[in-house]
Amino acid sequence: MLLRVNGVELFLLARTLMKIAEDALPQPPGGSAPYAGSARTTLIVATDIADNPETTVSEIVARTALPQSQVSSAVARLKDAGSVETSVDPQDRRRVRVRQAPELSERVREIRATTIDDALKAALGSDGAEGLHTVSAALEVLSEHLHHSGAGGGTRTHTSFDKAF
Predict the structure, then answer these.
(1) Which of 52, 88, 96, 160 is the most exposed place for a label (fewest CB within 10 A)?
(2) Which pLDDT does position 89 carry in this prediction?
């Protein structure tokens, strides 16, 4: 039987999955209060930087359609965590270039080591323990198919995500 999901249902599912993912991320040291913007924005910016080395805030804004203030905040957050480095653009001293740090930061190691199990159990409610295996397996299949099929534009493997987080 072919599952019939319309665009609205898919959008709402994606939104629910993003919330689960955000709940699964460990809080930064000192909590998230010192940083404007969300973990979602920071992940979008980190992935864009991984895909576009030696970029600028303006270029990230143009590619992601995020407000400049949110991109700047995400870059500051990533810089504080040791995930990116910045330098003055030698051709235009008013611009700052952003690139990934050559080594993985402690924060990236912490994020990579964190599983979604607890957040997924909480989202599943009373089905948490029983549904965890089934939903986790379904998410792995979905991820494998969409990441390697180029869904969302272009051929996308895990490499950009692995480079960013």
Answers:
(1) 88
(2) 86
